[in-house]
Amino acid sequence: MTPWRLEVVRIVRTRWWVAVIGVYVLFGLLGPISAAYLGEILERFGGGIEVVFPDPVPADGITQYLGNANQVGLLVVVAYAVSVLAFDAKPEIGVFLRTRTASIGAILLPRAVVATALVSAAFALGALAAWYETLVLLGTLPVGGMLLGMLLGMVYLAFVVAVTALAASLTRSAVAAAGLALVVLIALPLLAVLPPVAPWMPSRLAGAIDELVRGAAAGDFVRALGVTVAAAAAAYAVALRRFAAREL
Questions:
Q1: The pTM is what?
Q2: How many domains does the structure of the chain reveal?
């Protein structure tokens, strides 16, 4: 069995695809519903407190989707990526893989590519679900903004997988790798509060779909896209060196 086929079989047998895709699609379906009926929900469960909200617009459905996808969804993606990329966490597995492949790249590449494909597909399916629900409940969204925003969101998740690979190469513990990756991914939006830095942050891509459907220009994300691609490539380069140099 080739490493590529092994990764596909792993996803199916461990049911990770159910968890990853299920989370994004669920939020995609629920986000526009909460945006459309937020006022009624709070009125029913608010204990008699009257809260006045402006009428929802179609973009609010995407905002609600991203609010959950960029929090809970991110946790699921990192947990899944660590389970795949921290192959040295169990020494017997690390030894088995290293003694049956020509290079560390032959281990890392299939795992990283298949993981990226799964999380990207999950984000896209969730966005499509949110798009459909928004169309039904709130109105139409700009097609170009949605498609470009989905693509940029998928690039960001590819970056998340790359950061997780780097974290896994820096520590043998899967828990420590997940924690380190999350610290980096949480720190980036915090740095983005600085106006000079914000346009360059990879985290800018995580919310691109929301900004684009609200009228942002595609050119606003060029700098963040360039930094994200370069940072992901650098993360993999360092991860390969670290994995190769690690003694078992």
A1: 0.91
A2: 1
